[in-house]
Amino acid sequence: MTDPLDLLISRRGTLRFLVGAAGSAASLPLLAWPVSARAGTLPASGTASKSALQYQDHPKGTSSCANCANFIPGKNPDAAGRCIIVAGDISPKGWCLAYAGNG
């Protein structure tokens, strides 16, 4: 006759449990994200100072804030925008050390 404990602690049951536990553990960090990040919105402005990242109001060659991945544009192309790294208003024609090209 089969022992009932063998049915509860089978290899298949153990693997199913481990896969479920691993999936649950992997999703725990998602609960720690702020609601705004889960909604897909970016912060209004970064926290690094302009001087720390050597921000300048003019481009460096063809690199400018307008074509940086960290730049959040203003209401129109010439309006000051925001940066997810640098604090304060950012000129679309500016540049800093945090520049990251869009592709």
Characterization of this structure:
- The chain has 103 residues and is mainly alpha-helical.
- It has a domain at 4-38.
- Helices cover 30% and strands 4% of the residues.
- The protein contains three helices and two strands; from the N terminus they run H-H-H-E-E.
- The protein has helices spanning 4-8, 11-32, 35-38; strands at 71-72, 82-83.
- The chain has a two-stranded antiparallel sheet with strand order 1-2.
- The radius of gyration is 25 Å and the shape is rod-shaped.
- The mean pLDDT is 79.
Gist of the model:
This protein is mostly helical and 103 residues long. The chain is 30% helix and 4% strand. The mean pLDDT is 79.
Number of strands: 2
Shape: rod-shaped
The average pLDDT is 79
Neighbour order of strands in the largest sheet: 1-2
Q: Return the string of H and E elements.
A: HHHEE
Structural class: mainly alpha
Function: Specific class of high-redox-potential 4Fe-4S ferredoxins. Functions in anaerobic electron transport in most purple and in some other photosynthetic bacteria and in at least one genus (Paracoccus) of halophilic, denitrifying bacteria.
GO molecular function: 4 iron, 4 sulfur cluster binding; electron transfer activity; metal ion binding
Family: Belongs to the high-potential iron-sulfur protein (HiPIP) family.
InterPro entries: High_potential_FeS_prot, HIPIP_sf, TAT_signal
